[in-house]
Amino acid sequence: MGWWKDLSKNSISGLIVALVTGSGGLAVVVWLWRYIKQIYHWLVSIMAHPVTIPVWGITILSAILLALVPVITHIMSRNNEKEASAQTGTFLDYTNDTIFGMNVSWRWIKPYGNKNYTLNSIEVRCPECSGILSEYSDSDQYNRYVYPLIKCGFHDCGWHIAREFERISYRDMDYKLTQEIDRRCYQRFGK
Question: What is the pTM of this model?
């Protein structure tokens, strides 16, 4: 389609393109004119065919159609909405999942004065014992390179975070979880 934009920038070439396409359409109409004329006469003869229906019958039929058409369309749209919502649900019902090997739960809130929902209270739990995961500081044997470590605070729980998330702070993990929840909501529930 790039050539079309280039032609439309120049007024002379744009005029030539318009004349060629317009004359091509006109040629098709002239070539098919007898068929178009036959279809037109056929439609007029159908519309002008004499039918005897009493006026009261037309009035009653019109009133029934005027009353039933909106009711039927309303019922059909409600059924379609029910089927769609039953199949997908809403993102507000999506409040927990297993993300990055951890049990994550959250809730949706609608801040005052805002029309959009946002995540709140992201809680991360151990997949083995359901204990709350916390951030600890850990270091090597020489007390250098202090880095955060998210681990289970429950006594004698042997769960360890995945290697790719070992040195991530709780704040960074919260950000990654928020992004992942947003991605999963978009995949499941659309825009």
Answer: 0.48
